[in-house]
């Protein structure tokens, strides 16, 4: 049995490579984003596994985290983020760290949570000024000279690079009023007999994707859509009015679920989660202030994000983890997708 390594003996470069593989959903994708050969990244992962004496990935037809790999990813991500913030605080010169940063985020998540985190960063850094665009439309980051874009989806656009901040649950819910009138679905198949409410800027209107604890994916036609809107708040209002069942990111409905205004539906499968990314154009190096703000956001959002605390669902624990290696249907380079929800 290998001796237990002390924290000081762990290779930070290998740890960052491990987290990059988790974020990129694969070794090849991580290597491309890091500008390294695949063999280099593979060796770093193997070195970390030898050092720890555990297997971090299941290397089958599809790469996936082992149970211990998931534990390491969840805990190490926050440690590395806190380290980045600490290094920034120690090394930055307040007199030199400043200027105007141009940010695009959404009218949904941005107004509800991200705006407050960004303004707290500005309060800590009085030499930094910000121009923030809250908009659900697709944004040309490079063409409109944005330093930072906060987007929800699955990154595929090769012109965009950045960091995954957290993974966000999508929740299937209805109001008590709707359940009293129409009943609650018990299985995915039951959805066919219910009324659906759709968010056109993010989720597919053709099918809803579910995911089990084992990573198994099930696609299903949504309920008959009786309401479709390009604004998440409007869909939330329709749920509260008892019009139907929604499939929305957690930040829109968490407080309503906790307060009993909505009911979280348990179909024994969870909705496949989405990811929040901090992105910039590959065509130019990110400014130090954008790097610092990204680290600040990641450290304060948490894994899972703080608004999901005390929110549980037996069927969707896999969606709570930010480190299920899988893909979702939304692409960040799809002009039909929002800058974030």
Protein model, in words:
By secondary structure, this protein is α/β, with parallel strands linked by helices. The protein has two domains: 7-88, Winged helix-like DNA-binding domain superfamily/Winged helix DNA-binding domain (Arc Repressor Mutant, subunit A, Orthogonal Bundle), CATH 1.10.10; 98-341, D-Maltodextrin-Binding Protein, domain 2 (3-Layer(aba) Sandwich). 35% of the residues lie in helices and 23% in strands. The protein has ten helices and 13 strands. Strand 1 and strand 2 form a beta hairpin. The longest helix is centred in the first third of the chain and has 25 residues, at 67-91.
Structural class: alpha/beta
Average pLDDT: 80
Estimate what percentage of residues fall within beta strands: 15-25%
Radius of gyration: 21 Å
Can you tell me the number of structural domains?
2
Helix content: 25-40%
**Poorly predicted regions:** 314-341
Order of helices and strands: HHHEEHEHEEEHEEEEHEHEEHH
Counted by DSSP, the helix tally is: 10
Tell me the span between the first and last alpha carbons: 48 Å
- Count the beta strands: 13
Q: Based on the structure given, which CATH architecture of the largest domain is correct? A: 3-Layer(aba) Sandwich
Protein name: LysR family transcriptional regulator
InterPro entries: LysR-type_TF_proteobact-type (IPR058163), LysR_HTH_N (IPR000847), LysR_subst-bd (IPR005119), WH-like_DNA-bd_sf (IPR036388), WH_DNA-bd_sf (IPR036390)
Keywords: DNA-binding, Transcription, Transcription regulation
Pfam families: HTH_1, LysR_substrate
């Amino acid at each position: 049995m290998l001796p237990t390594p002390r924290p000081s003996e762990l290779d930070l470069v290998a740890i960052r490579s491990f987290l990059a593989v988790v974020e990129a959903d694969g070794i090849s994708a991580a290597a491309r984003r890091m500008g390294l050969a695949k063999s280099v990244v593979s060796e770093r992962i193997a070195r970390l596994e030898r050092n720890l004496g555990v297997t971090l990935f299941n290397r089958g037809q599809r790469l996936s985290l082992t149970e211990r790999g998931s534990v390491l990813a969840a805990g190490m991500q926050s440690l590395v983020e806190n380290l980045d913030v600490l290094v920034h605080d120690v090394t930055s010169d307040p007199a030199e760290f400043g200027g105007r940063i141009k940010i695009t985020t959404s009218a949904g998540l941005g107004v509800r949570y991200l705006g407050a985190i960004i303004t707290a960063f500005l309060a800590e850094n009085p030499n930094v000024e910000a121009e923030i665009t809250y908009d659900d439309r697709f944004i040309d980051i490079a063409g409109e000279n944005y330093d930072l874009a906060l987007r929800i989806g699955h990154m595929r656009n090769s012109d965009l690079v950045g960091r995954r901040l957290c993974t966000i649950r999508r929740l299937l819910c209805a109001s008590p009023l709707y359940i009293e009138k129409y009943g609650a679905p018990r299985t995915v198949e039951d959805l066919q007999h219910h009324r659906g409410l759709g968010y056109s800027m993010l989720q597919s209107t053709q099918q809803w994707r579910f995911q089990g604890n084992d990573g198994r994916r099930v696609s299903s036609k949504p309920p008959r859509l009786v309401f479709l809107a390009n604004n998440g708040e409007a869909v939330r209002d329709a749920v509260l009015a008892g019009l139907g069942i929604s499939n929305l990111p957690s930040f829109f409905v968490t407080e309503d679920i906790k307060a009993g205004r909505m009911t979280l539906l348990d179909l024994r499968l969870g909705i496949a989660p989405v990811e929040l990314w901090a992105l910039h154009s590959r065509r130019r190096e990110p400014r130090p202030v954008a790097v610092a703000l990204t680290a600040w956001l990641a450290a304060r959002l948490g894994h899972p994000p703080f608004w999901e605390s005390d929110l549980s669902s037996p069927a969707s624990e896999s969606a709570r983890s930010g480190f299920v290696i899988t893909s979702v249907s939304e692409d960040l380079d799809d002009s039909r997708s929002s800058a974030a929800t």
